[in-house]
Design brief:
This protein has 98 residues and is mainly α. The chain has one domain. Helices cover 60% and strands 0% of the residues. The protein starts with 9 loop residues before the first helix and ends with a helix.
Length: 98
């Protein structure tokens, strides 16, 4: 499967997040990830912190469920996406929204 990029479709992102090792990611967060990548919508504080490689911020913003899944999120962004995270990309991606 090709890596998820800024031009990936919603169905490709969902398929990637549906792999057995990522199925634990809550549906609401799958929707937030899709909205961020496809619609360039600003995510909540937890996802923003993950996207910007701000581990401290992610830990402080996470609810109990997401706190336990931080490693899974980071593995998905690292292993399944191409260049969709990091503070510079985050700011650049949102500046392209309409």
């Amino acid at each position: 499967m090709n890596p998820i990029t800024a031009v990936s479709t919603e169905s490709a992102i969902i398929a990637s997040l549906s792999k057995e090792c990522y199925k634990v990611i809550p549906e609401v967060m799958v929707k937030a990830i899709v909205n961020y990548i496809v619609a360039k919508r600003r995510p909540g504080d937890f996802l923003r912190s993950l996207l910007c490689n701000d581990l401290k911020g992610a830990v402080l913003c996470a609810d109990d469920q997401n706190l336990a899944l931080i490693k899974i999120y980071l593995q998905w962004f690292h292993n399944e996406t191409y260049g969709l995270y990091g503070k510079d990309y985050y700011e650049s991606n949102l500046s392209k929204s309409t």
